[in-house]
Design goal:
Blueprint (H helix, E strand, L loop, with lengths): L31 E2 L13 H7 L13 H11 L6 E4 L1 H13 L5 E6 L4 H8 L3 E6 L9 H9 L4 E5 L11 H13 L3 E5 L20 E6 L12 E4 L2 H7 L10 H12 L1 H24 L3 E3 L5 E5 L3 H13 L2 E2 L11 E5 L3 H13 L4
Parallel strand pairs: 1-11, 3-4, 3-5, 5-6, 6-7
Antiparallel strand pairs: 2-8, 7-8, 9-10, 10-12
Helix pairs in contact: 2-8, 3-4, 9-11
Bound molecules: pyridoxal-5'-phosphate.
Length: about 350
Amino acid sequence: MWRIKLKFKRKVHLKDISRIRIPEDRDLDNCLRLNRNERVADWHKGFLREVFDSKPDYLLNVYPNSDSIYKKLSKYLKLDKNQILLSSGMDGAFKAIWETVTDPGDHVGVPVPTYAMYHVYNKIFDTKLTQINYDSYTLKLKWNELDKFIESKPHILFIPNPNQPVEDPLSIDQIAEISKRCSENGTLLVIDEAYYMFGCETAIGLVKDYDNLVILRTFSKGFGVPGIRLGYMVSNTENIDHFSKTRFAYESNSLSDAVGEYLLDNLDIVNDYIKKVHEGRNYLKSELSKLGFNCNGNVGNYLLIDFGSKEKCKYYASELEERKIHVKANYSDEWGKYMLVTLGPKETLVPFIDVIKSSFIL
Ligand SMILES: Cc1ncc(COP(=O)(O)O)c(C=O)c1O
């Protein structure tokens, strides 16, 4: 693409960024999707009809009006609606933050390994990313690296809580302490709560105490609808006003809002599924421990399994792949021995365990 003679000015730093689409080589109708922390069980037939039955016939022939979902979110979160900003998934919120806060060369940081888009936005906005490491043996954050990073007075510290694939959840007291130190240093603290509904505490209550704190949420995980690309950020009204400066004319759309509203009105459906994920987690952990495998996971919709070596991990991943069971087993370096498996209701995980048992090697 860059071999052609440029006919207009382009931002030079974008030249070396290649945006690949995540290869969707999954046979979605027949495979078991355990590789992307999505909802594993399908929504029931008729779900979309139920969602749209309550909506007026003009839903699609007028521009979106998000008042209703803002009201529902404000009630759900017990916050003023001016403290909330909808985004295109949490991804849209990352972009809004980078766009409205950073200049090229600014210093940002995130604990790694983590969600890949942190690296992508760092490149897009030409910032300088410090990776704060987890210990691959204890699966704990290296606090000395975090302390050093905060002391360097960076511009933004992102902390997914829990993180993935390593959860290592932080307590509210720890987040309060980090917020305080960040605020003394002029650092924006962003807590990514993508997985909070599966068991982690939320730091939303701290927003009133710390002006430099932003919480990000999504409908992709606990609510189980990544396809609608809906997320939101929460902070004080001044910050939200600032982050919304570069938003699209409409930050969401009527179809996504309708699904989001339906789920906010029917939280029992959402909570029932989360309960089943917890049951699935207990089942998988107990079966894996009978086979002698260590695994880590208490507060997300995923389990990190230690297969002891990269070779064994690859072996099991290819056995699973052959039966169209997709898992994530492409971590690099010392993380190569780990496999990440998305959790669903127990019955969706039985085929996974069956393959591990039938291909068991010492
Ligand atoms: C830690 C973390 N944050 C954010 C996201 C992105 O969520 P969304 O689908 O809302 O963009 C993911 C997705 O896997 C994630 O793992």
